[in-house]
């Protein structure tokens, strides 16, 4: 394998990223909310030796923003991403599990405990994709706060001024504090705090549990956690970013950022912005993966034909924040190799139709990358951090204090 192998994961979202994917013959729409459907998808990804699966979630129903609440032609329901990951953790062995968990209406103490538990049940394969919730409709689900949703005029003004609307910046400032609280809670137990000494009747060494005493604008959390430090010490924190503010957020808080380069310009313009955002970052550099929506050729039809047919089904062209790829696995391998050589650490592919395109990724794309010595031919033992090339030993900030 090449000295700088590329990393490859997939983002799973229901029946697939195209809104009509659930209507495909192989999409198993009657099983979307069953454990078997999800274990089969993650099993396929693991068969392809992928680094991780991320599992989409939000506090709003799926569908493009602005989709009418009474729309019946798209899937308008979700099950919880973290609980999906918890379900598949014991029956998978190597692949990383990265659920989306929203910070805006979720207490960081609960997030810390849930993800630490996932790290235990998966044997050190947990990650977290941080997401904010910025709509008034989502806030209304909880009724505890109001969220100022930027108007189109405010967003337009922010673009002209080159700065985010104040409400948007506040959401990400809150999310940054939430991640900091979660990380501190993961460290609030030292690795050897559990002594389990029956003779002295001491399960823990109380001197190795620490108050975090976090006081910020949005949270005041004393700690410690009630869950021991996770196997990885710090599970992998990720974020999807499309703008300088979110690149800055990722540089402050995350281990890995997902970006969305365009096919015409390639990854360099965004890589330059990410580099600028992490200029003052200390320690490990931020890993950068590019998102691509994939419609791959199969024996039955081309990816382009499948996309065209799905668009005809919905009556509109599929639009995505990420670049859309249609073509053969060889052509996609060419693109990944090219962008990898231009500075990306890896890629996260979004299967246009989950069952069809994930199978093509595992069974067609991966063997090509292996023949080119760009991708592993077997899983190493270890954690998700190790799989992604991150340090596997993370110092505890509270140890020896």
Automatic annotation (TrEMBL):
It holds the Pfam family Bac_luciferase. InterPro entries: Diverse_substr_monoxygenases, Luciferase-like_dom, Luciferase-like_sf, NTA_MOA. SUPFAM superfamilies: Bacterial luciferase-like (SSF51679). Keywords: Flavoprotein, FMN, Monooxygenase, Oxidoreductase. Residues 33-320 form the Luciferase-like domain. Belongs to the NtaA/SnaA/DszA monooxygenase family. This is LLM class flavin-dependent oxidoreductase. It comes from Nocardia jiangxiensis.
């Amino acid at each position: 394998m090449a000295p700088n192998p590329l990393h490859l994961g997939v983002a799973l979202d229901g029946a697939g990223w195209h809104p009509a994917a659930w209507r495909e013959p192989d999409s198993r729409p009657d099983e979307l909310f069953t454990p078997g459907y999800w274990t089969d998808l993650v099993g396929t990804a693991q068969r392809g030796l992928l680094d991780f699966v991320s599992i989409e979630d939000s506090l709003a129903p799926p569908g493009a923003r602005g989709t009418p609440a009474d729309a019946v032609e798209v899937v308008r329901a979700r099950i919880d991403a973290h609980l999906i990951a918890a379900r598949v953790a014991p029956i998978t062995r190597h692949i990383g599990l990265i659920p989306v968990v929203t910070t805006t209406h979720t207490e960081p103490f609960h997030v810390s405990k849930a993800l630490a538990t996932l790290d235990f049940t998966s044997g050190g394969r947990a990650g977290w994709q941080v997401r904010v919730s910025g709509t008034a409709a989502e806030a209304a689900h909880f009724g505890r706060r109001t969220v100022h949703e930027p108007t189109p005029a405010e967003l337009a003004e922010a673009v002209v001024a080159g700065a985010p609307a104040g409400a948007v910046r506040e959401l990400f400032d809150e999310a940054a504090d939430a991640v900091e609280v979660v990380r501190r809670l993961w460290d609030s137990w030292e690795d050897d705090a559990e002594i389990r000494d029956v003779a002295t009747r001491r399960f823990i060494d109380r001197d190795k549990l620490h108050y975090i005493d976090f006081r910020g604008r949005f949270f005041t959390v004393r700690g410690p956690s009630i869950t021991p430090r996770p196997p990885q010490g710090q599970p992998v924190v990720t974020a999807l970013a499309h703008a300088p503010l979110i690149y800055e957020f990722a540089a402050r808080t995350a281990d890995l950022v997902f970006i969305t380069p365009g096919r015409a310009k390639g990854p360099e313009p965004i890589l330059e912005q990410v580099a600028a955002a992490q200029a003052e970052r200390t320690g490990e550099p931020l890993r950068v993966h590019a998102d691509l929506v994939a419609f791959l050729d199969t024996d039955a039809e081309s990816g382009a034909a499948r996309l065209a047919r799905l668009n005809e089904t919905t009556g509109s062209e599929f639009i995505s924040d990420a670049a859309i790829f249609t073509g053969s696995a060889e052509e996609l391998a060419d693109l990944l190799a090219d962008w990898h050589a231009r500075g990306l650490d890896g890629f996260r592919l979004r299967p246009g139709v989950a069952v069809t395109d994930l199978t093509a990724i595992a069974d067609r794309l991966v063997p090509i990358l292996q023949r080119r010595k760009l991708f592993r031919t077997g899983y190493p033992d270890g954690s998700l951090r190790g799989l992604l090339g991150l340090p596997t030993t993370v110092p505890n900030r509270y140890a020896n204090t």
